[in-house]
Design goal:
globular, binds calcium ion
């Protein structure tokens, strides 16, 4: 269970937390998960009302923005072409893999609905207390769990 969690979190955190492209600042380094200041910075970005907790709405707010960024023709769907448009050659394969994973219903395009199930999944896992609110401690624990996995594999 731990392993699956780490795996999905690798996509979740490094892949832009809720999918749809990497957060530029995090994509290159892979160091974010072990830097408490960076984790807190990410946490605050999500905690838009500064309540000290991330609600599911806050958790998914950025997802829409990222989605729109990829959906360059604004038709409500992100195609593989759109998704890989800004990927460099060495990132292309991984981006394609990510696309396949994110395409929950396998119809070859990503919609916000594809992300919805996964987001709920991620959120529920990060929210270890299950109160619908991700605290900084829960967020940090999730990031650290991901980092531990990262240290033992090349993924
Ligand atoms: Ca909040
Ligand atoms: Ca599109
Ligand atoms: Ca919680």
């Amino acid at each position: 269970m731990r392993k699956t969690f780490g795996n999905q979190l690798a996509i979740a955190l490094v892949g832009g937390l809720v999918g749809f492209a990497a957060v530029p600042a995090l994509a290159g380094s892979g160091d974010a998960a072990k830097d408490p200041a960076r984790i807190e910075e990410m946490f605050k970005k999500f905690d838009q009302d500064a309540s000290g907790g991330i609600s599911f709405d806050e958790f998914t707010a950025h997802r829409g923005e990222r989605f729109k960024k990829h959906d360059t023709d604004s038709d409500g769907q992100v195609t593989l072409e759109e998704f890989t448009a800004d990927a460099s050659a060495d990132k292309l394969e991984r981006r394609k893999e990510r696309f396949a994973k994110m395409d929950a219903n396998g119809d070859g395009v990503l919609t916000l609905e594809d992300g919805e199930t996964r987001s709920r999944d991620y959120f529920a896992k990060i929210d270890s207390s299950g109160d619908g609110n991700v605290t900084l401690a829960e967020f940090t624990a999730a990031a650290e769990a991901h980092h531990k996995k990262d240290a033992t594999t090349t993924q």
